[in-house]
Amino acid sequence: MRAYLASARRVTGVSAVSDYSFTSERHGGDGWALVGDAATFLDPVFSTGVFLGMSAGIRAAKAVDAALRAKSRVHAADFTAYGRTTRRMVGRFRPFVYGYYDPVFTRMFCEKEPIDALRAAVTSVLAGDVEEPALAVRFFNRMTLFLFALARRFERPPEPAPLASTV
Fold it and tell me: What pTM, to 2 d.p., does this model score?
């Protein structure tokens, strides 16, 4: 790449893309429901969107079915549990997706041999175990996030890169 880009020059400033994930405050109302990317979108790094969208669709459909059977109408209150579960599931994924972009988090799993129980718990979440994860998975994931926060606190800032000479 160095040889290929030797004569290249930057034509724009350096910039970064900020977080573009979102979760709706409301996942349903009188006669309507949000599912999939309309309800919540989490960075696509781990391909969680299909899983979250499909599981949300199933839960929303069950809420609609139950409401229609009970009263032939769907009200906002019928989606309370659906919205709460969806936010909880996204909340279990989110710290690991955000951690992916943090060099400290990456080093925890790539530069040193991670503790097997921590690695297994994180892998479990990233594989979709977010609806009703086992107590041990929840415990080790919280431990992982605690260790990550601790490591970030004591992380030294990177040394600045030397400036290239333009002579």
Answer: 0.68
